[in-house]
Design brief:
The complex is a heterodimer of chains A (249) and B (399). By secondary structure, chain A is an alpha/beta fold. Chain A is built from 9 helices and 10 strands. Chain A folds into 2 domains: 133 residues, 3-Layer(aba) Sandwich (Rossmann fold); 65 residues, no CATH class. In chain A, 45% of the residues are buried. A 4-stranded mixed beta sheet of chain B has the order 2-1-3-4. The chains are: A alpha/beta (249), B mainly alpha (399).
Chain lengths: 249, 399
């Protein structure tokens, strides 16, 4: 489980996250959505220990990230927005590298990699060097890298970005499967259809704070909208008049 | 809770080993890294060896060439003089064209012009056309000058004898020139050029790989996922530093042994040339250089972590090798006396020890230890600073 409580983070005069709180529960897929610059990436980076909060707390499976970053990171599998592969290493070597850094024994690492290669359908390219991979192939390797140590909690930033329809469906199935196995999945996506199809819980953020949250059905009901895109737009617009009022005052 | 040093953490050194293995694998596949590591270090040795080979050949030529031809105008005016030159290995040949042009264009080392009055009188003004800007002309002119001097003395003696005077009556000062210049001196000078070139390579050899592992990792976006893995940042940077040091050491081994092998080949081509110092001396130079390699790698990492991009880091670090190499060049012409104080100054200490080793002078062991200790301490200090830079949140956003 990932818990964020009253998180604040500023970069100079820019308040990137302003009192954000959310809970991503085990066995649920929680979607964090918001416009560009809403503070999603900053919040994620704080969860996986790359940034320290100015105030508030972040914990992963009860371990405070600021207190024991390494312990928290052992329970996390992360698919960042920038996949960051090494052009001279093969897909398999990427997965081995990350698995070895997680401390997996060699035999287990090999077996686990084989499972992931099959599960993510990487057989055709996994032993080729990453230079020249398509975006979809890059994403699959990055996903394999994130899952190699069987993390209980997953943070997925745009998990199907760049994938074709078949591969997207396979990744969605995998995410659901992980959810069904009891994993906590926190994802961010700009594809509302994907968010709608995958997420059990939604948190809409803007300007570093939560605008609204609930299950997709609850949100649709709250905003009297048929689809999540309308919910998203309505929640963002709800903030805009308030901002205009502040300006007038 | 007291924080343990990072390397005492559970499995910390194993994770460092994983980083080292990955970086070695990655860079062994990088053709640019390999070229820089294997070919670049040979450039200095090639340059100095070719210089030695050419200089040795030119200077040896002075001694081995028994005769050479000189274009001459007016040979018919002084047959005795021409015959004297021929006896001394200088063959005057009729000039085909303008002497000044021939010498200026390098078609002849020098030219002689004998005036018509040489036919009638015993005294005449010989005009010598020479271009002293070329080393090989200097040798030829020197030789011709000596022969003409001998002819002059011979004639003066004859005239004095005919006048009933002592043969050396007209000679007040006789010059007995002893030419001490020899190919060996040029060789020793060129051997003394190796320390600054070695110093230059120490600070250049690891630049590409170090920048690629730090600023490059950030620039291609692979740093963020890597930092999410449970590895201590100090351990991660340490693993990268070990690889940087290993690649620098490999390049330096090639560089130092390249100097010995190529200089040996160049020197062997000319028997008069002093052979270079032994392989043992160059091995000692390599060992003395190791602590400095650690300084270089730590410094490269710190600069690469401060730089906003790979390109910026490469610009800074491309200039860095000049800083230690320049004092080295000065020391070639004005060597410092090795003292404990100098040994304790990083760079200067090693340069002085390199110079002593190459010159075959005795080296004080305590100065070697002192120089190594100070350099290792400096490397540790710079690496500590680089670690602090690597811990910064800003690390991900630089650029």
């Amino acid at each position: 489980m990932i818990e964020i409580r009253g998180l604040k983070k500023a970069f100079g005069k820019v308040q990137a996250v302003d009192g954000l709180s959310l809970v991503a529960r085990d066995g649920r897929i929680t979607g964090l959505i918001g416009p560009n610059g809403a503070g999603k990436t900053t919040a994620f980076r704080t969860v996986y220990g790359l940034l320290s909060p100015n105030s508030g707390s972040v914990s992963v499976d009860g371990t405070a990230v600021t207190r024991d970053r390494l312990a928290a990171q052992r329970h996390l599998g992360v698919l960042p927005d920038v996949r960051g592969l090494y052009p001279r290493l093969t897909g398999r070597e990427h997965i081995h590298y990350y698995g070895a850094l997680q401390g997996l024994p060699r035999d287990e690492l090999r077996a686990r990699t084989s499972v992931l290669v099959d599960r993510l359908d990487m057989g055709g390219f996994v032993d080729r060097r990453a230079r020249g991979y398509s975006r979809g192939q890059e994403l699959k390797v990055a996903l394999g890298r994130a899952l190699v140590h069987r993390p209980h909690n997953l943070i997925l930033d745009e998990p199907t970005n760049g994938l074709d329809v078949v591969s997207s469906r396979a990744v969605r199935d995998l995410i659901r499967e992980l959810r069904d196995q009891g994993h906590c999945v926190l994802l961010s996506s700009h594809i509302m259809a994907e968010v709608s199809a995958l997420c059990d819980d939604l948190v809409i953020v803007s300007e570093g704070a939560v605008l609204t949250e609930g299950t997709p059905d609850q949100l649709r009901e709250r905003y009297a909208a048929d689809d999540l895109e309308d919910v998203f737009v309505a929640s963002i617009n709800q903030l805009a008049p308030a901002r205009e009022l502040e300006t007038v005052e | 809770m007291t924080a343990l040093p990072w390397f005492l953490g559970d499995g910390a050194l194993q994770r460092v080993a994983v980083v080292i293995k990955k970086e070695l694998l990655d860079h062994m596949r990088d053709r640019r890294s390999l070229v820089l590591a294997l070919v670049y270090p040979m450039l200095g040795p090639l340059l100095v060896s070719i210089s030695l080979y050419v200089a040795g050949g030119v200077l040896s030529g002075q001694k081995t060439t028994e005769t050479f031809e000189i274009p001459t105008i007016g040979m018919e005016h002084a047959p005795d003089f021409i015959a004297f030159l021929a006896e001394n290995g200088i063959i005057a040949v009729p000039a085909r064209g303008d002497l000044e042009t021939m010498v200026r264009r390098g078609r002849a080392p020098l030219g002689l012009e004998i005036p018509p009055e040489a036919r009638t009188g015993e005294r005449f003004a010989l005009r010598v056309y020479a271009d002293y800007s070329k080393i090989e002309n200097l040798q030829a002119s020197g030789h011709v000058g000596q022969v003409i001097g001998r002819y002059n003395r011979q004639q003066a003696g004859r005239l004095a004898r005919e006048a009933g005077l002592r043969e050396d009556f007209l000679i007040t000062v006789s010059i007995d020139q002893v030419n001490l210049s020899r190919p060996a001196d040029i060789a020793v000078f060129l051997y003394n050029l190796t320390p600054p070139l070695i110093m230059f390579m120490i600070f250049l050899a690891g630049v590409h790989i170090t920048v690629d592992m730090t600023a490059g990792e950030r620039e291609r976006g692979s740093l963020e996922p890597l930092l999410i893995t449970p590895i201590e940042r100090s351990g991660l940077l340490f693993g990268k530093a070990v690889v940087g040091l290993a690649m620098t050491a490999l390049a330096m081994a090639i560089n130092v042994m390249g100097f010995r092998i190529l200089l040996g080949i160049a020197a062997a081509a000319h028997p008069e040339v002093t052979p270079p110092p032994s392989f043992g001396v160059f091995a000692a130079v390599f060992l003395v250089a190791v602590p400095l390699m650690a300084v270089a790698v730590a410094f490269q990492m710190a600069i690469a972590l401060v730089a906003r991009s790979m390109k910026e880091a490469q610009i800074y670090l491309g200039l860095l090798p000049l800083i230690p190499a320049l004092p080295g060049m000065i020391l070639v012409f004005s060597p410092l006396r090795p003292t404990d104080a100098i040994a304790a100054v990083p760079l200067l200490g090693q340069l002085t020890i390199f110079n002593q080793l190459i010159a075959g002078d005795p080296v004080a062991v305590h100065q070697v230890i002192m120089s190594a200790s100070v350099s290792l301490a400096l490397a540790g200090l710079i690496f500590w600073y680089a670690q602090r830079l690597f811990e910064r949140e800003k690390l991900l956003f630089v650029g």
